[in-house]
Amino acid sequence: MVEQLSPLAQAFRPGSHGNFADGVGVTLSEIAPGSIVQVAAWPREEKTLMGAIASVTQLSLADGAGAGAVSERHAAFGFAPGKFLVTDTSEGLATALAGAVTSSAGTVTDLSHGRTAIRIEGTKAEWVLGKLFAVDFEQAAFPIGSGISTAHHDIFAQIQRSGAARFDLYVFRSFARSFWKMLCHAAAEVGYEVV
Amino acid sequence: MSPRRIPSGGRIDRLRTIRFTFDGVSYAGHQGDTLASALLANGVMLFGRSFKYHRPRGVLTAGVDEPNALVTVLRGDVREPNLPATTVEIYDGLVAVSQNRFPSLAHDVSAVNQLGGKFISAGFYYKTFMGPAIGPLKGTRFWMMCEHIIRRAAGLGRAGHAPDPSRYERMNAFCDVLVVGSGPAGLSAAREAAASGLRVILAELDPEFGGSANWSGETIDGEPAATWASDIVGELKEHKNVRLLKRTTVWGYYDGNTIAALERVSDHEASPAKGAPRHRQWTIRAGSVVLAAGAFERPLVFPGNDRPGVMMASAAMRYANQYGVLPGEKIAVFTNNDSAYLAAAALAKAGASIVAMIDLRRNVGDACRALAKAAGAELLTGRAVVGTEGGKKLTGVKLAHFDEASGVISGEARAVATDCLVVSGGWSPTIHLASQAGARPAWDAELQAFLPPEPGKGWVGAGAFNGTFSTAEAIAEGFAAGRKAADLPPVKVDMLPQVEPAALDPRPAPVFEIRAKGKAFVDFQHDVTADDVRLAHLEGFVSVEHLKRYTTLGMATDQGKGSNVPGLAIMAEAVGKPIPEVGTTRFRPPFAPVSVGSLAAERFGDLKPERLTPMHDWHIENGATMYSAGLWFRPMIYGDPGETVEQAYVREAGTTRDAAGIVDVSTLGKIAVQGPDAAEFLDRVYTNVFSTLPVGKARYGLMLREDGIAFDDGTTWRLGEEDFLMTTTTANAGKVMQHLEYFLDVVWPDLRVHLTSVTDQWAGAAIGGPKAREILASCVTGTKVDNETLPFMGIVRGEIAGAPVMICRLSFSGEMAFEVYSGAGHGIHVWEALVEAGKPHGMVPYGLEALGTMRIEKGHVTGAEIDGRTTGRDLHLGWMLSKKKPFIGSAMMDREGLTAPDRLELVGIVSLDNRPLNGGAHIVMQADPENPHGSLGHITAACFSPALGKYIALALVSAGKSRHGKRAQVSDPLRNRFGPVEIVSHHFFDPEGKRMHG
Question: Are B49 and B111 in contact (CB under 8 A)?
Answer without folding.
Answer: yes
